[in-house]
Structure formats: structure tokens, C-alpha cells
Amino acid sequence: MKIILSFLLLVTFTSNVIAFSTTNIEYLYGNFSGNSGFDTIGGKSTITLEHFSTYEYGDFFGFVDFAVADDRFKNQDKSTDVYFELSPRVSLSKTTKQDLSFLFVKDIFIAGQYNREMHKFEDYDAWLYGVGSDLSVKGFDVFGLNFYKKNQNFGEDTYQLSANYISNNILNSNFTIDGFTDWTTQDFLSQNRLLYKLDYSYLKNNVHVGTEWHYYKVKNTNVKSNVLQAMIMVKW
Length: 236
Description:
CATH superfamily: Nucleoside-specific channel-forming protein, Tsx-like
Number of helices: 2
CATH class: Mainly Beta
Number of domains: 1
Number of strands: 14
């Protein structure tokens, strides 16, 4: 599995044709008062750096979260946290030079992902591999669906179905809804954002403000996190 992900990352970073690229930095603040690993005593500030690009053979998405608790994390003896994900995909249409679209499926991918969280005593990491797709869904500019086998060093290995989506067609052109949802055989995580683009010429339409709803639940337990965060984003 590590060989598969390493190959996908190698293809991503050695491709010499970048068709599209976007990066943003976000600041979020919310009161994570549940009882999951996300939650803190008092509020939590998070700075997130995200990047997405399409390239000669597929696409790549990655982000890193730097979180700081007002006091400390509820279930851990620490006040800071670093977590990141790297998600390369290789397009079967582009590599085979064949149109593999059918019905509402626009493309099919070999998909991988690496997750890592820096713990005080031992880091968490997860290696994921599987298949992905880009779908044509009414009302959405982007809708991706990926199915992974997930191997992790904490907890049991599992399967994960991940959806990511963007819609710029609500209310008016200054509003965007986007986010992701992960289902596994063990838990459920969904983070969804409603953002308003500040339409001032000197901001060059690159500043967005709004909110992010974070929801996390471990199946068949009382472990749950449910919070609305204030958010500001700068894109370039």
C-alpha cells in the first residue's frame, strides 16, 4: 500500500504540466465542547493551508491543520495539534488516453491518501488506497467520490467512502458551499462551509468569510463532536 501511494505521489510531483492550481489559507475559531479527540477545554483556533491542482495525469489535494486550544485538548495532555493529509489521484482516462466517462461518471481514478497527526508520545498515521471518480451532479460544480481501504496504526483497519463537493450556484455568485464527508465502518466525519466572497476590487475577490460546520461521531458510542466555527479564508 505504501508503494502504491508513493507511486501516486511520484507521478503527481514529477508531472511537468499543471493545468489548474489553487491554494488558500484559513483561520477558524469554535468552541469544541464535545467528548471526541477533536474537542478542547474552551475554544480552539485552527489555521489551515489547503492546495489543489490538476496535472498531466490526474490531480492532487493536500492540507495541513495547525490547531491551538485556549486551554488544552479535552482527552489529551496538550494544547496544540498538527494534522495533515496528502491525496493524489491518477486518472485512468488520461493515462490510457481513452474516454472512460459513462452516465454521470466523468472520470475514474486510482486514488491514494496519507493521513498523519503529531501526538505527544506516538504519531497517528493512516495509509489509504482505492478507486475514485468525478461525478456530474446537478447543482454542484465539483463532486468527487473515492472508496478506500484504510490501514491505520491506532484502531482497526477499515474501509472509507469519501465525498467532496463544491457548489457556486446558490443564492448568488458570491456564496459558495463546499466540504467533505467521510464514512467508515467505525465513524462518520463531515465538515461543510458556507462562505461569502467579499466583492471589493482591492481584495481581488480572494477573501471569503463565513462558517464551517464540523460534525464527528463514533458509531455505537457516545463519542461525538458538533460545532459551528467562524471562518475567514484568503485564496490565491
